């Protein structure tokens, strides 16, 4: 063989060994690892969680996109996990290390190729080969391979800033400018614990790294001894073409753009970490100092001391004591313990939790943009625990919870504080300094980035329906936003409901006029009896968030220049909007539906078929309105209804009467003394029927079988005003909207038929009259309660009864009227209804027997409505 032939043979052998390319680097991982290597990696990483919700982010990426995964700190541990898990799941794995090298998991032959290629290149050019200069990284990215880049590591910064090494982001920007396909940067965050960052690391953190950024030893210990605590999440992908199109700096250099891109990604990853772990956890003393040394509060304390002629030292001491009275003492260890306790409680007394997973996913995404204001309805003391439990088990931090000072009793008060509860007084009246300190505490929580949970109803609903919003705390939040505590306030309306509430008997006691019992340790001891019963399912639903910033922009309002009256109107509008948003995602349970049908029956004794017919009418309306029904109603409504009816019979709420000769004559009757409990459950679903109820009553009031839609507006508007203390109506919808929507529902159910020739005119069908009364009977309890209160005002001149004793006299009056059969339903003797009626009449010109004109107007209306509902 001649020398040239030998050289050609050696070159051919060389290129065959190199697989036809000299582009071999430790930056590239094999697309298909060997079975042994892959098996070991899967075994090593098997305990790390990567949820299906997180996988959806990757599934939605464009198929033609150039994908680069980005992490904050350089970590081969994270890189190899994503490489392994993404291969398992069928996603594009990160095989290109844009600023990382990997020797350990390379095939042996590939390792030899890399060394030989580098050695040959060095002897030829006296420099090492560079995959950026050769264009290999760009080629591989365009061929569909995904990349991996680190953003915030110290070594990488030194290489870029001091040694002027290649910046991967700069090359990605150049690539995006040259191609039409999107370059997508996908931030990856790996968590080794749910505990938040500490402001002061301990000795273990100093030696072995923090739980959020552990060293190699701590990482391995966590992987093998606490595998379930490690999980990975994918943050919102950043499309580079969109980023470049919105970059606003005039004539930017490539370095400027790459720095801005890096900062944007780092900020997003940091926000994602906060949304999962919570902000940096400061000690209570640090929080107190931050509040007390703030210029705004210091100036106020000095002014307060001067005005009250008190020593400044004494005022500052009082402010410090107020913070101790208010502030939470958040403890990750307490959260972990509480999680196990709540899990045990749920499994012991409930039949599971139904969670709106899509809403929860939206919530998690929202929390990456800033602190959230979580606003659930308030039906039970367990509400405090349930929402925090759900968030914690879905990798979100437990919120700081606004709790009434009545819950700060020993020993639960200190435990609640460690679980994130902070305490406030029911009234700030006369406590000017306390109110100011409390406002500064709320400002601090928002400024630090904590999510806050509060109950806009103020307290637990004793009636079963939502209470009208209390606006004090909402006003404090808006004021904190105006003072610059955060960039936006994002309110999240949340429904938490139960088939059956734990406090059922105590609510009944209070509604019938009994005094509310103060929370104490003895009640906790007696609560053990709850563990012997079953309370059905828990339902949690999330509505779309309400951005205060967007709300202000949409209405053209400027919060900084807003006068107090307009500020109050904004709070009221927002409060009702939140309450309506909670109502919109409330779940109709079979317990509520059956209770409504039982109490609205026209006859005292009725057959099961008659009951089921009424339930079908209600259920048909709910489904036609596309309202949220419980899982059991959706799967098999008949079985769910029969199960609840049997449950009510077993609990003694309903009596069953059987004929000894035949089972066809079985009849039922609601036990009179149990009607108030059923009223509570009926009220759980009454809000869904209110538009139809008001429309039905307005139709019945016409006392004609033919009418037009416009004929109903006045009656609907009167009822909406009359019961404004009972039902929070949608401020954005007019009576005309609700009337027309209800008429459509009635037409679909053959309650009404359109007139064949006259436009906007309708007829009541023969069967429709009965159904209209069936809907209207939802109001009978309230009408009777308001009739009792109006009777009180008829009998007592103005200012002859002190406000403190008025409620007792009204209750006594109601009991006499019930005995005399002047009202029919015992559940009408409701302390809650009486208070709402009293407030309505006092605010609408009725304060005593002298107000005869107004009394006669309302008396006529109530009596007419009740006559339409009489059996």
Structural overview:
- Helix content is 53%, strand content 10%.
- By secondary structure, the protein is an alpha/beta fold.
- It has four domains: 23-102 and 129-192 and 230-277, no CATH class; 330-584, Glycerol-3-phosphate (1)-acyltransferase (3-Layer(aba) Sandwich), CATH 3.40.1130; 590-683, Orthogonal Bundle (Arc Repressor Mutant, subunit A), CATH 1.10.10; 686-871, no CATH class.
- The strands form four sheets. Strands 7, 8, 9, 10, 11, 12, 13 and 14 form an eight-stranded mixed sheet that branches.
- It is elongated.
- The model is unreliable at 520-527 (pLDDT under 50).
Strand content: 5-15%
Q: How would a crystallographer describe the biggest sheet?
A: 8 strands, mixed
The count of helical stretches stands at 38
* Quaternary organisation: single chain
Average pLDDT, to the nearest integer? 87
Radius of gyration: 34 Å
Poorly predicted residue ranges: 520-527
The top-level CATH class of the largest domain is Alpha Beta
Q: Helix amount, in percent?
A: 40-55%
Q: What is the name of the CATH topology of the largest domain?
A: Glycerol-3-phosphate (1)-acyltransferase
Q: How many runs of DSSP E, i.e. beta strands?
A: 20
- CATH architecture assignment name of the largest domain: 3-Layer(aba) Sandwich
Alpha-beta content class: alpha/beta
- Based on Cα principal axes, name the global outline: elongated
Question: Can you tell me the number of structural domains?
Answer: 4
């Amino acid at each position: 063989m001649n020398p040239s032939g030998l050289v050609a043979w050696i070159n051919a052998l060389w290129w065959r060994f190199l697989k036809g390319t000299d582009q071999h680097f430790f930056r590239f991982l094999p697309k298909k690892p060997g079975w042994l290597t892959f098996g070991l990696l899967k075994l090593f990483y098997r305990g790390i969680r990567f949820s299906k919700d997180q996988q959806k982010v990757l599934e939605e990426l464009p198929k033609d996109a150039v994908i680069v995964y980005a992490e904050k700190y350089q970590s081969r541990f994270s890189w190899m996990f994503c490489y392994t898990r993404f291969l398992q799941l069928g996603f594009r794995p990160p095989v290109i290390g844009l600023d990382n090298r990997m020797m350990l998991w390379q095939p042996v032959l590939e390792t030899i190729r890399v060394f030989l290629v580098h050695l040959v290149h060095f002897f030829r050019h006296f420099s090492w080969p560079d995959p950026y200069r050769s264009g290999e990284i760009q080629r591989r990215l365009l061929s569909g391979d995904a990349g991996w880049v680190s953003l915030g590591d110290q070594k990488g910064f030194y290489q870029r800033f001091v040694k002027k090494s290649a910046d991967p982001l700069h090359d990605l920007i150049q690539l995006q400018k040259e191609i039409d396909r999107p370059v997508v940067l996908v931030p990856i965050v790996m968590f080794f614990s749910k505990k938040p960052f500490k402001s002061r690391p301990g000795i273990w953190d100093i030696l072995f790294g923090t739980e959020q950024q552990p060293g190699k030893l701590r990482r391995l210990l966590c992987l093998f001894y606490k595998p379930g605590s490690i999980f990975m999440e994918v943050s919102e992908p950043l499309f580079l073409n969109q980023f470049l199109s919105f970059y606003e700096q005039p004539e930017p250099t490539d370095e400027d753009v790459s720095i801005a891109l890096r900062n944007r990604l780092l900020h997003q990853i940091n926000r994602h970490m906060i949304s999962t772990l919570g902000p940096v956890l400061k000690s209570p003393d640090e929080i107190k100092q931050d509040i007390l040394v703030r210029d705004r509060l210091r100036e106020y304390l000095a002014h307060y001391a001067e005005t009250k002629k008190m020593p400044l030292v004494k005022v500052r001491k009082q402010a410090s004591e107020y913070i101790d009275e208010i502030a939470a003492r958040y403890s990750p260890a307490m959260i972990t313990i509480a999680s196990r306790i709540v899990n045990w409680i749920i499994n012991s007394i409930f039949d599971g939790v139904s969670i709106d997973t899509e809403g929860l996913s939206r919530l998690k995404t929202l929390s990456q943009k800033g602190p959230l204001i979580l606003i659930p309805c308030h039906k039970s003391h367990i509400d405090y625990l349930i929402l925090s439990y759900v968030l914690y088990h879905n990798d979100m931090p437990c919120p700081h919870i606004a709790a009434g000072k009545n819950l700060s009793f020993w020993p639960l008060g200190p435990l609640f504080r460690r679980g994130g509860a902070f305490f406030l007084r029911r009234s700030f009246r006369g406590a000017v300094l306390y109110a100011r300190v409390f406002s500064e505490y709320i400002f601090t929580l928002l400024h630090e980035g904590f999510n806050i949970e509060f109950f806009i109803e103020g307290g637990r609903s004793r009636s079963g329906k939502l209470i009208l919003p209390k606006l004090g705390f909402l006003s404090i939040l808006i004021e904190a936003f105006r003072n610059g505590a955060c960039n936006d306030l994002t309110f999240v309306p949340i429904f938490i409901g139960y088939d059956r509430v734990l406090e059922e008997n105590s609510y009944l006691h209070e509604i019938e006029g009994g005094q509310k019992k103060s929370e104490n340790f003895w009640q906790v001891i007696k609560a053990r009896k709850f563990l012997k019963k079953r309370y059905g399912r828990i339902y949690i639903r999330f509505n779309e968030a309400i951005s205060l910033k967007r709300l202000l922009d949409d209405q053209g309002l400027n919060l900084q220049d807003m006068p107090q009256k307009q500020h109050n109107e904004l709070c009221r509008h927002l409060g009702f909007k939140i309450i309506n948003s909670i109502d919109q995602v409330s779940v109709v349970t079979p317990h509520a539906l059956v209770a409504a049908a039982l109490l609205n029956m026209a006859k005292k004794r009725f057959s099961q078929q008659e009951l089921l017919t009424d339930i079908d009418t209600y259920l048909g309306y709910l489904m036609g309105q596309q309202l949220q029904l419980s899982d059991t109603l959706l799967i098999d409504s008949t079985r769910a209804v029969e199960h609840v009816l049997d449950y009510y019979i077993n609990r003694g709420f309903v009596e069953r009467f059987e004929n000894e000769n035949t089972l066809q004559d079985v009849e039922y009757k609601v036990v009179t003394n149990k009607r108030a409990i059923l009223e509570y459950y009926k009220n759980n679903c009454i809000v869904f029927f209110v538009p139809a109820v008001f429309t039905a009553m307005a139709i019945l009031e016409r006392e004609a079988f033919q009418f037009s839609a416009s004929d109903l507006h006045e009656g609907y508007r009167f009822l909406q005003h009359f019961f404004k203390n009972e039902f929070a109506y949608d401020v954005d919808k007019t009576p005309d909207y609700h009337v027309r929507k209800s008429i459509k529902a009635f037409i679909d159910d053959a309650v009404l038929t359109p007139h064949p020739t006259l436009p906007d005119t309708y007829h009541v069908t023969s069967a429709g009259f009965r159904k209209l009364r069936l809907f209207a009977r939802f109001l009978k309890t309230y009408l009777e309660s308001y009739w009792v209160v109006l009777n009180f005002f008829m009998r007592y001149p103005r200012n002859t009864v002190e406000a403190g004793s008025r409620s007792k006299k009204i209750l006594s009056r109601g009991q006499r009227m019930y005995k005399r059969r002047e009202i029919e339903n015992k559940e009408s003797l409701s302390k809650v209804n009486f208070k709402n009626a009293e407030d309505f009449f006092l605010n609408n010109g009725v304060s005593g027997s002298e107000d005869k004109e107004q009394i006669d107007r309302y008396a006529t209306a109530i009596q007419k409505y009740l006559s339409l509902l009489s059996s």
